Amino acid sequence: MGFPIFGSTGMSHWGREKAFPGVTVYTTFGSDRVNLIDLDGKVVHNWTPPSLVQPYYGFMRPNGNLSLRCQSGEEQWGFGGASATIVELDWDSNVIWRYDNPAIHHDHEILRNGNTMVIGWEPLARELVAKIQGGSVAPGEEDHEVVSDYLRELAPDGSTAWEWHGSDHLDPAHEVICALEGRHEWTHCNGVTELQDGNLLLSFRQTSTILIIDKPTGDVNWRFGPGEFSHQHNPTELENGNFLVFDNGEHRIRGSCYSRVVELDPKTNEIVWQYRGDPPLSLFSTGISGAQRLPNGNTLICDGRTGRLVEVTTEGEIVWEYMNPETSPGVATNGIGRYSAPIGTQWTARRYKAACIADT
């Protein structure tokens, strides 16, 4: 598990001349609110979702509203990332839009056309389960259910505008589950991003692969992995067309475990930039986590398991560090063993220009 370089909790380091000015949104697992902090670490605003749901993670929309994933207790499967409710909240936490589906999980994306893309689980047919390779099976679970992922594009009224099913388009020979993971899930899609050309960038944790779906046909027209990444999260497209990815590194094939953030050129499949902690385990999160390229060229990194946020320059200099002072129940890991710890676990975080909240 990663650890802070400059301090314990709260804002521990700020290079005022190099950090990108703005406010940051984050959500602590188990909390009842979403926080908006300034660069001093001061909470300048928070949102509270409706009763009976618990915030999971959220991001701000251009209109100042918050798009928020929540756990409702109605989740159909108990795998990591299960979160059956999405709400849009205005500045005063009023519900503007809500969608409930017990099968949805992990990520959602607001598309340029105003629709919302969600990820869901669905059972795989047994004849396809037999073709799935890799993974480990515990004694007595040889015949258990295996789920796959689907994508669903929702119109504002909640109707389905487009749908994609992994079982129709993915090849079991290519999507091989990591040998150290279970076989309850085939791909475990943990991220979806709309690209500039309208196609979709997906992240499959179980197979340590990112790929592009051609939206008109549903076919896979580009893929990267497995082999280079290890259980990655949060791939996003940069203005230059490259992809930014948080590579968690829990089960690296070569060497010790560590996390890193990489910028990948999809035209050449070359990593053109990366950031690793120094020492390496100062940045290590076995799950969740993410990264955001900021307008000044810096990168905001969320070490999700610890709740540590760090902003680095292209040269790797840390210019801002914040350790979430809130705590959440759960189990932490340091790559060797697991232990209970009062940690501020969070899915990811996003930085915004302060002007985005000036008129709210």
Biggest sheet strand order reads: 1-26-25-24-23
> Helix count?
2
Counted beta strands: 29
- What's the helical proportion of residues? under 10%
The CATH class designation is: Mainly Beta
CATH superfamily: YVTN repeat-like/Quinoprotein amine dehydrogenase
Task: Name the shape in a single word.
Answer: globular
State the separation between the terminal residues, measured CA to CA: 37 Å
- Number of structural domains: 1
Main sheet makeup: 5 strands, antiparallel
Instruction: Look at the structure and give the mean pLDDT.
Output: 91
Poorly predicted runs: 330-342
* Structural class by helix and strand composition: mainly beta
CATH topology: Methylamine Dehydrogenase, Chain H
Indicate the CATH architecture.
7 Propeller
Give me the Rg, rounded. 19 Å
- Tell me the strand percentage band: 35-45%
Describe this protein with a few key phrases.
mainly beta; five-stranded antiparallel beta sheet; single chain; Methylamine Dehydrogenase, Chain H; 2 helices; 360 residues
Helices, strands, pairings?
Blueprint: E1 10-14, E2 23-26, E3 34-37, E4 43-47, E5 54-60, E6 66-71, E7 85-89, E8 95-100, E9 104-110, E10 116-123, H1 126-129, E11 134-136, E12 147-154, E13 160-165, H2 166-169, E14 177-182, E15 189-194, E16 200-204, E17 209-213, E18 220-224, E19 233-237, E20 243-247, E21 260-265, E22 270-276, E23 290-293, E24 299-303, E25 308-312, E26 318-323, E27 331-333, E28 338-340, E29 349-352
Parallel strand pairs: 11-14
Antiparallel strand pairs: 1-26, 2-3, 2-29, 3-4, 5-6, 6-7, 7-8, 9-10, 10-12, 12-13, 15-16, 16-17, 17-18, 19-20, 20-21, 21-22, 23-24, 24-25, 25-26, 27-28
